[in-house]
Amino acid sequence: MVDIHSFFAIIELMTSRSYLGEFELILLLAVIRLGDEAYGVPICRELEFHRGRNVSVGSVYAALERLEAKGLIVSSLGDPTPERGGKAKRFFAITKEGLRQVRETRRVLTKLWQAIPESKLDLLQEG
Q1: Alpha-carbon span 10 to 51, nearest angstrom
Q2: Does domain 21-126 have CATH number 3.60.15.10?
Q3: pLDDT the model gives residue 4
Q4: What are the DSSP E strand ranges found in 33-87?
Q5: Distance from C-alpha of 60 to C-alpha of 83, rounded to nearest angstrom
Q6: Rounded CA gap, 107 and 103, in Å?
Q7: Contact between residue 19 and residue 105 where contact means Cβ atoms under 8 Å apart
């Protein structure tokens, strides 16, 4: 169990660095999970399945573009296909920096969860 002083030290550490937001994190996790099949539609389906709600394709592509601008993912165009009217799929892959940030976010979130006393977690379940 982490004491209250350690808890606030973790919070201060989080504000001093750039951590992934929820949507960014789950997008990166979906890209990792899908591997070579990480492109728009499967990424949206993956998010919808795990979040249990609809996801806007536009919001997914906007977030993917932000992640690429940050250097956390890279994209490449596949071959054009007749079933897509001759359009190519845009595939995404995580970078080393993206993977580092996913791991760091997991580490910090795990520490925060461990810092919450069980009695507080019980209150969350009752609400």
Answers
A1: 27
A2: no
A3: 62
A4: 73-80
A5: 22
A6: 6
A7: yes
Q: Evaluate whether 28 touches 19 at the Cβ level (below 8 Å).
A: no
Q: Is the pTM of this model over 0.90?
A: no
First to last CA, the chain: 23
Q: Measure the CA–CA gap between 84 and 47, rounded to whole angstroms.
A: 22
- Tokens representing 1 are 């169990």
Bridge partners of 76?
Answer: 91
Q: Which two tokens stand for residue 108?
A: 């910090």
Instruction: Confirm if 83 and 106 have CB atoms less than 8 A apart.
Output: no
> For the chain (length 127 residues), average pLDDT per consecutive 10?
59 58 94 95 94 92 95 92 79 96 92 84 69
- Residue tagged 């750039």 (tokens): 18
> In the beta sheet, which residues pair with residue 88?
80
